[in-house]
Amino acid sequence: MLIDSHCHFDFEPFASDPAYYLTLARRAGVGTIVIPSVGERNWLVVKSLCQQFDGLYYALGLHPFFSQEHSQYALSLLSEQLAEVAGTEKKDRKCVAVGECGLDFAIAGANRERQIELLSAQLVLANEYGLPVILHCRKAFPELVSVLKRTPPRAGGVYHGFSGSLPQAEQLIDLGIKIGVGGTITYRRANKTRNTIAALPLTALMLETDAPDMPVSGYQGEPNRPDRLFNIMQSLVEIREESEAEIASATSLTAAELFRILM
Ligand SMILES: [Zn+2]
Prior knowledge:
Blueprint: E1 2-4, H1 18-27, E2 30-36, H2 40-52, E3 56-60, H3 74-86, E4 95-104, H4 112-128, E5 133-138, H5 141-150, E6 157-159, H6 166-174, E7 177-181, H7 191-199, E8 205-207, H8 229-239, H9 244-259
Parallel strand pairs: 1-2, 2-3, 3-4, 4-5, 5-6, 6-7, 7-8
Helix pairs in contact: 4-5
Family: Belongs to the metallo-dependent hydrolases superfamily. TatD-type hydrolase family.
Keywords: Hydrolase
Organism: Photobacterium alginatilyticum
C-alpha cells in the first residue's frame, strides 16, 4: 500500500464525505494519508479526523502562508498541543510530525522575520518532542537552508512539493531532509523537476498529492485527490530505472520510517 505523505484531507471536498474518498484512495492502493495542519483553526479538526479513521495520521504546525492569521499565542498553544499528544505520557501515535511549517516569501508583503521566527521555534519544538518536520518553502530556499543549519531537525523531515534543482535537492538530503514528490512530475513539460527527481537516490523520495491542491496531469481544474497518488507513482516509474514494485515499496518505506508509521 502507498502512503500519501501530504494531503489536506480535512479540506473540501474530502471533509463532506471522508469515508467515500478513503475508499477511492484504498482502491487505488493508497492505504495511509498524512494530514498536515495549517494553524490553530484546524489542529483539533485533523486530530479528530484521524481518531475516526484507520490509516490517517496528522501533523501539528503553523503554516507560513497563514502567518498573518497565527495569534501571538500560537507557539505556546502549539507547544501545549504537542505536549498532550507527543509527550511521553499521553502519546497519540497518530500525531507523526510538526507541520506544515516553513517559509513562503512568494506571498505579497510577506513578513520574513516573523516567518523565520515561527519556523525556528517549530524546529525547536520538533526536537523537543522527537518529531520530524514537514516543510513548505516558496522563494526562500537559501533562507530555509540557513534556518535548518542553525537548528537541525534531529528526527529529520520532508521538503514537500519539491520542484527545484539537483544541487538544491542534494543540499536538503545532506541535511537529513527527504524529498516530497508531487504532481509536478506528471507534466511532461516539467523537465527540470523530472530530471532532478530521476537523478536522486530512490531512498530519498516519498510520494504526496498535496490534495486538494496541485492537480495531476489530465485532471487540471478539478480538486486533486489522494487516489491520484497512483498517477504520481506511475510518472515516477516512467522517469526512473527501478521497477514499479521497487518504487512503490521504497517510497512507502521512507515515509513510514520518517513518520514512524507501522505498516
Ligand atoms: Zn500543504
